[in-house]
Amino acid sequence: MESTAKNLYEGMFVLPQTYVREDQSGAFALLSETMEKFGAEIRHKEIWAERPLAYEINHVREASYVLMYFDASADAIAKIERQFRITDNVLRVLIVNPAKDFNLETFLEEKAAKELEEQKEKEEAEKPTATKEEVEA
Amino acid sequence: MRAGFNKRRRRLDPILKKKTVPYIDYKQVRLLQKYITPHGKMFGAKRTGFCNQNQRQLMVAIKRARFLGLLPYIGTTVKD
User: Which of A79, A99, A127, B19 has the fewest CB atoms nearer than 10 Å to its CB?
Assistant: First the structure.
């Protein structure tokens, strides 16, 4: 295989929750700058979850999980992992191949559809209360 | 071997049966929590009823989740 060929990878980054809450754009910038330094193209990034860690890492108990999909050459993966291992505020990095039948486009479409539904549900939940108030008024 | 000893049929793989999950992923923490003991040890294939392929996926997923602090290596599971 050519070393210049780029493949799709899935990356999960564990950051301290306090750090991400204070400066979310800064945290994203830290991640994406490092990735781009090694020639990775970020296709999608999101905060996947904010949850307590199962065990303490570097005296941190609560973490934010940043999920990222990106294109990178196979050689770059080791370099990216190495770089993040010595970066402050990055507790853990896991870069894996996505599942066999994974398709980024369908993943994004499904995600957008879900968000739309959630928004609709929210609006619907808010609507009846508003009408009640109107009725009372 | 005693008669009838080998006749007990193996349960069908629960994941294959339902087809709800196409791939056992480290991000499905709720699912993974079903397959570890309160101390954090994985269940064997005999207990889970998984086929070899799914059991391997489960193993990889649990190990990845442990590395990321989603599941414990040892001790009680974290409640959401």
Answer: B19
